[in-house]
Every structure is written in C-alpha cells, then in structure tokens.
Specification:
By secondary structure, this protein is an alpha/beta fold. Helix content is 39%, strand content 22%. It has two domains: 3-229 and 431-455, Aldehyde Dehydrogenase, Chain A, domain 1 (3-Layer(aba) Sandwich), CATH 3.40.605; 233-420, Aldehyde Dehydrogenase, Chain A, domain 2. It has a seven-stranded mixed sheet, with helices on both faces.
Length: 456
C-alpha cells in the first residue's frame, strides 16, 4: 500500500510513495551499522563542517521547505518558516558545541589517574511525529550524528514529502551514505528494526500508546530508549496576574501549530477572583480568530493534520459536552472542505468526564476555576501526564515556589511552555523520559566509558 501525502486544507492527495520492503528496510539497517564503523572515527571538525553546511542549507531553502510543511500537514506558513529557522539554530548549536559537551571528564580521585570518555554507541532508530515534521527529526538526528552515531528515521505516514526532503538534505550536505537514512516504511516494521542487533537505541516522539509499544520492544531487547509523549499542560493564572498578558500568552500557548503540540497549554486553571475577567477576554480573542487557508496571510488557524484527526477531536469534544461540560465558544466544525475544527473553549469539566485526563490534540482549551494556590497545584498535578506547564503571576518568588511543586519536566513563568536549543526538553510520568536539546540532548545515546590509567 502506498504512502500518501494529502493536503489537509482540501483533503486532496498531493503525491504518493512506495514503501520499502522488509528486505530493503533491513538492508538500510545494515548500511547504517556499516556507516557507523567509519563515521565514529571522523573528527569533530569533519562533522562540524558538514553540520554547518546543513544549517546554512536549511536557511537557504526555508521557503521551499516551509511550503511543503504547510501543504502536507496544515501548519500556518509563517509558523512553518519559523520551524525551519529553529532547525538551523539547533543544528548550529550542536555543530559548535558537541566537542565541548562530549569532552573527556577527568576524575579527581586520590591515587587514581582516570577519566570518563563519551563514546558513540552505534546505529539509532528515530520514530518521529508529523506535527513538527522537520524540527522533531533535526532535534533527534543532529546531536546524535555529531556524537558519532548514525540515524535511521521512520517518519509519520502523513508527511512523506517532508521526510523525503530531509533525507535529500543530508545527502546534499555531504554526509556519507548510511549516516542519516529516511525510511518510508509501515509502522509494523518498527519492532523488527528494534530487534536487530545492528540497532543500539531508539527515540520516539509520539503518542502514549506508541511510546509504550516502542519502550516494550526496546526493553525486551536491552536497547536504550528516549520517549517524548503526550502532554496535558496546565496554564495557571493567579489572582495577581497581568490578565491582558495572560490572555495573549494563552492564545499563543493553546493555538500554536493549530493546537497540535504536546506542550501546548491545554488546561487553564484560573483563580476564581479573576476567572470571569480572564474568560471574557479569552473568549473574545478566540472568537476573533480567522480560520482559513494556512498559506494565506491573515489566517490565525489552519486545519488539523488529517481528516481523521479533525473527526476524532470532534468526537472527543462531543462526548465531554454530552457528559455535562459547557461550550463557551466553538465546539463544532466549520462548513467548509478540509480537516478544520473551530477554536473552542470548554468549561465545567469534571474529573468523571472523558477529556479530564485526555490530551485534546487540537484547538480546544478547557478552563477550570480554583480558590487557592494549593488547589491550583493539586489540579495541575491531577494528571497522568507531566510534560510542561506555566504559571502567571507578578510575584516571581511565589511563582517559583509553586513551579517547584508541579510534577512536570518543565515549568515556565509568565509564558507558555516552549523549546529552545540550549535548554533541556522532556517530561515525566506518562509524558515519557529522557531529555532532548541542550547539552543533555547529546548525552542520551552515549557510552560513558571509564578509562583507568593506573595509580598516580
């Protein structure tokens, strides 16, 4: 069965690709392992030259790549261009920093002459999602390739044009065959790849279900794994917050990427003293959003990634409404072609409703009221997820105290959760484990080898 690229703005097919056979897939794994044996011997200088060329090429082609992203998964063109710029920044960060991040670590022990060497471990598999189709791959591949590993990527089935272009990009920038490999394959091939003795680790960004499956196969085969899974991030607004700023941050945090981000603000936990004021302003801003073609200027919200995603979101919202939740605004699909869903605010959601601990992956915000800091923290932590979150207050020390009590991998004050190349990214609980970006992102698939030179 071919892998189809479909424009979610029109639900029309753009192109299709023939998937690799199982034999071709395992041949690619062999080539990645073979490439590792030579790539690991290259110097940091050699790797840096190619990575800096890759960063420059990303910037040169950003308009071309952004258009493909927008056509294939519906991201607004402006955001797609920003995604490519971010990719270039990540690439430069690791190109320029890898040697320092992986430098030998001297062990200052009495009578011992020893150090720790950071050595690459081999060919890695990345299983990547569609919502940031270039960023997620670059975030995985660039640190690991700079470390001396090689990477194979099984990308999401709905962004085959993006995955194809990323594969060409590495070739165009002079990386040897097998250092980076794009795999057009069905998901059922993933366990076979993980089981191969040529694969030493696997990184997945995706759903909780997919993460559990990959982690199970990795654990069974004693392979390292990194998982970045879903999120149901809390956006806490205290009674002393700047409400105008909080509304602006709420719009940015909830509706970035058409609401399809693991670290998007999803649960708005508002102190009762300012809840009415916040909700009125938030509703006004949401209702003013322009839903339309993501290629056009003036569009605030494009389609979801696929028709199935839009239908699934509509079903989830309806189940919650049927259970007693209130639709503040939105709550339906617009009367137009494409995988669209109107921006929506829900209130009155209780713990027994379907979406209370469910990640609504699309432009839907849920607003809760609380009467104290303690109640806000308890509600924020009452989730199986633990990716990011934010607190909005004019009292930074108060915000810091509360941030330290939230069970997530990241907490931001007076801004929504976001990504930055030099800051660590990752979660806890059902949001996964391991860290990406920053100096930590190059350490996950490294052998920290003790070299003992004898007594001093």
């Amino acid at each position: 069965m071919s892998i189809k690229s479909i424009n979610p703005t029109t639900n029309q097919e753009l192109t299709s690709y023939e998937p690799l056979s199982r034999e071709q897939t395992m041949d690619a794994v062999e080539k990645a392992d073979s490439a590792f044996k030579s790539w690991r011997k290259t110097t940091f200088s050699e790797r840096t030259d190619k990575m800096l060329k890759l960063a420059a090429t990303l910037r040169e082609r950003k308009d071309e790549y952004a258009k493909i992203i927008t056509l294939e998964m519906g991201k607004r063109l402006e955001e797609a261009i920003s995604e490519i710029d971010f990719c270039a920044g990540i690439t430069e960060f690791y190109a320029n920093g890898a040697e320092e991040f992986l430098a030998n670590e001297s062990l200052e022990k009495d009578g011992v002459n020893a150090y720790i060497q950071s050595a690459p471990i081999g060919a890695l598999l990345g299983v990547m999602p569609w919502n940031f189709p270039f960023y997620q791959v670059i975030r995985f591949a660039t640190p690991n390739i700079m470390a001396g590993n090689t990477c194979l990527v099984k990308h999401a089935g709905c962004v085959p044009q993006c995955s194809t272009e990323i594969g060409k990009l590495f070739v165009d920038c002079g990386f040897p065959e097998g250092v980076f490999t794009n795999l057009h394959i069905p998901s059922e091939f993933v366990p076979t790849i993980i089981e191969s003795d040529k694969i030493t680790g696997v990184s997945l960004t995706g759903s909780e279900k997919a993460g559990a499956s990959v982690a199970g196969h990795a654990g069974k085969n004693l392979k390292r794994s990194v998982l970045e899974l879903g999120g149901n991030d809390a956006f806490i607004i205290l009674e002393d917050a700047d409400i105008e700023s909080a509304v602006k941050m709420a719009m940015k945090g909830r509706f970035v990427n058409n609401g399809q981000s693991c670290v998007a603000a999803k649960r708005f936990i508002v102190h009762d003293k300012v809840a009415d004021t916040f909700l009125a302003s938030f509703k006004k801003a949401v209702e003013a959003m322009q839903v339309g073609d993501p290629m056009e200027e003036g569009t605030d919200l494009g389609p979801l990634s696929t028709e199935a995603a839009a239908a699934g979101l509509a079903e989830s919202v309806q189940k919650t409404v049927d259970a007693g939740a209130t639709v503040v605004c939105g709550g339906s699909r617009p009367d137009r072609e494409g995988a669209f869903y109107n921006p929506t605010i829900l209130s009155g959601v209780t713990k027994d409703m379907p979406s209370f601990d469910q990640e609504l992956f699309g432009p839907v915000a849920t607003v809760y009221r609380v009467k104290s800091d303690a109640e806000a923290i308890d509600l924020a932590n009452d989730s199986s997820y633990g990716l990011g979150g934010s607190i909005h207050t004019k009292d930074i020390k108060r915000g810091q105290r509360l941030a330290e009590q939230i069970d997530t991998g990241m907490v931001f004050l007076n801004q929504p959760t976001n990504s930055q190349e030099d800051l660590p990214f990752g979660g806890t609980k059902n949001s996964g484990y391991g860290r990406e970006l920053s100096h930590l992102g190059i350490q996950e698939f490294i052998n920290k080898k003790l070299i003992h030179l004898g007594e001093k």
